[in-house]
Each structure stands twice: as structure tokens, then as C-alpha cells.
DNA sequence: CGTAAGCCGTACAGCAGTGTACGACTTATG
DNA sequence: CATAAGTCGTACACTGCTGTACGGCTTACG
């Protein structure tokens, strides 16, 4: 939103902050240490905000081993930083899920998907909380939807093959997937569920919930 | 909890704020208008915080038609107010759920329970968010657990009668109950689910998830 | 090896919220 | 109807956070 006008009035472009926020990629004009700092900030912010969602810019800067002013030179506002961190996490998640084999038997594919997903959700639980505090909900949902696409396509396939139920809408089943995983994450955080037992419980529950209802009774 | 020391150093007791916070009951020394104000504050705070979880004391006071100072004279801090509101909501919920007939066929009882529960959850979604911002998590859980007792006892009964599955722990099934309802509430808020369809989806999902797994592959 | 890009700390301005103090006014209640 | 309980607005002190400005120093990079 605020980069748009900057690009217009700065014909040289890329002087300060255009597109090279992420560590990788070809930001030619940026000095190496600047790029390193941006990475350090993003990483530190991700970890810190996942612990304390209300951490201030001051604290983020300290955690990244960087001055607060430098932090502001890279991210114009708290919201901007939060958005960048959120984007980064979702990209990470997307990369992790891309490796999951979703072919073959749907229940087993679902189990694999759960096994790869739930940890990410658990770790970025509080970060989502932080995002909800100051990011427009539309933006959050947008990021989320992209990650849930894989879930949705798997469910669709299961429905076509009659492995999964078709009496409830696909979008609802996606919601159930998401909700149960989040519920498990909360339980773990509360110390009422161990990390080891979680994936099996989640998978067993989802498979029952997704199975076609038996016509009996 | 935080009134404890006040009672000690004020032998007269009941002068300002001891136990008569709620509208009903026998707070002899309190003037009638004071009691009315406390009620108005609690009601307004509940409604306002359910819309904007970050509403300030100023805004709460205005919504209650009361001066900010008066608000502070009844609730010493924001946290104290929030706790009172939270307690009130849970008490309301408890009262509503007490009317639900939990006897007889477990699936039907579960359906009735869902039908009475989910609206309350949906309406106080954001209030829970507010509570998580400044109430110790232990306190929140304590309130929650009391409300979930009914769910738990119903599930236990279903397990004894082999209507519900016993291969997953009871506490986990309670979590699933809670999570699915919350998920539905979020979907409604996002405009992706209508109020009319919600209860059926929730019930159908939970019944499948709670049903004993069929030994047939 | 010079220069510009980038870093740093400090300092300042602004804002918003929390709690508290005070004095005057209003109203239940006996 | 007198009095104590309660309310009201205004004002103040304090805290913590955001975002910006400035000048000096370090360092990457050609």
C-alpha cells in the first residue's frame, strides 16, 4: 500500500525497500549486511511473536540484535512487519506441505497431511493471535486459504471416490480439519495433551468425521 | 482472588466492593442505584467487548451511560472488570445449559446440547479473545471447565453405553466438541456459513466423530 | 581506498490508555 | 428532610508504544 507511491516518486527504484524484503532473490542494490539484517529481523520476529504476540518493536529489534531505528528503516510500521512475518510463515508452511505425497489411498494421504501440518499450526498459534490483533481479517484469510487449498483438493478427491462423505459441504470439512488441529494445539499448550499423542488423535478423529455416514439406523 | 486483601484491611466490609457485584443477591449496604449501575456496566461491557475486544474503559463507561470514574469505583481495574464480565457470561451459559434435557438417547441429547451451546459460543467469541489478552490462562480454563462438565458427563455416559467411541480419551472428545463449535462460529463470522445451517453441520460432524469406529475396513 | 549505503543511539513529539485525586452535585434511604 | 452514599466531570501523573529526525560512526563494495 505505501510502496506503491514510493515507486512512483523514486525513479531509481530499489533504493530502500521495494521488493527484496525476503532474504533470497535478486535485490541488486541492497548491501549484503542489510539483507542479512532483514533476514535476522524476520526470523527473530517470527520466534518472538510466536511466544509473546504483543511484543513491541523495541523487543523485536533487541531480539534481532538490531537497533530499533534500523528495524523501522526496513519495515515502516508494526503492521508491515507483522504482515511480512505472517507471509513468511505461510510460505514456509506451503513449502513443507508441498513435499507431502497426496496421491493414493485418501485416508493415508490425509494422515500424512495431518502429520506434516499440525506442528506448524501448533508453533504459529500465537502468531496467528498477533495477526488477528492488527491485520485486517481479509488478509489473514487470504493467506490461510492458499495453505488450505491442498486440504481442499484432497477432500474433493476423496469425495469423488466416495471415500469421504458428500452429505456435508467441502468447505465445512476443511473447517473441521482446521478446527480440530487448532484445538489439539491449544490442548498441548495447556499441558493437557502430549506432543506424541496428538497426531494419532487428530487423524483418528478426522477420518471418522470425514467417512461417509452409514445408512444403518 | 484480588478482593482478599481488601476484606482484611476494611473491617466494615461491603463499603465499596466485596461480593455484591452481581445484580441479584443480598448486598444490604449498597444503594439501589449503585446496584443498577453495576448491572448496567456489566451488561454494556459484555455487549461492547463482544464486538470490540479492545474497547477501553472510557468506551465501556460511555456505553453503560456512566462516568469513567464511577466505573472505576466499581471495578478497580480493567482486568477486574473483564473477569467479572467473563464470569457473568459463563454463569449465563451455565444457566442456559442447565435446562437442556441430557437424558435418553445420547445422540439426540448431544444434538440438543449443541443446539443450546453453539449460539452462546458464537456470541461470546470475541469476548474470549479479550479475555485471552489480559486474563491469566488458568483463570479462563477454570471457567471453561465448569461449563464443559456437562459435555463431559454426557460423553462419559455415551461411552458406558457403547454409543460413543472409547478408543480415544474422553478429554479429547470434549476438545473436539469445543473446537468444532468454535470453528463454526468463526466461519459464520467470516460470512462463509449461515446461521441456519450451522447446528446441523456441527451435530452431524460430532456424531460421526464420536461414533465407535467400525471394525470393518 | 574512497564513498555512499547502512548502521547506531539518543532524543523528541505525539498519542492513547490506565489509575487516582478532588470538589461539587444528586439522590436514595431512614 | 437531613445525611451519607453515590455520582459526575475535569484534571493530573504516569506509563508504554509508535514513528520520525538527526548526527556520528562503521562497513560493504566498486
From TrEMBL, chains A, B:
Record key words, sorted: DNA-binding, Transcription, Transcription regulation
Region (Disordered): 1-35
Any coiled-coil regions, as ranges: none
Domain of life the protein comes from: Bacteria
Signal peptide: none
InterPro entries: Homeodomain-like_sf, HTH-type_TetR-like_transc_reg, HTH_TetR, Tet_transcr_reg_TetR-rel_C_sf
Key word Nucleotide-binding present: no
PROSITE patterns: HTH_TETR_2 (PS50977)
Residue stretches of biased makeup (Acidic residues): 1-10
DNA-binding region in chain numbering: 56-75
A Pfam family that the UniProt record links to this protein: TetR_N
The keyword Nucleotide-binding is assigned to this record: no
HTH tetR-type domain ranges (all copies): 35-93
MF annotations from Gene Ontology: DNA-binding transcription factor activity; transcription cis-regulatory region binding
The protein, known as: HTH tetR-type domain-containing protein
Species, as recorded: Dactylosporangium siamense
Higher taxonomy: Bacteria, Bacillati, Actinomycetota, Actinomycetes, Micromonosporales
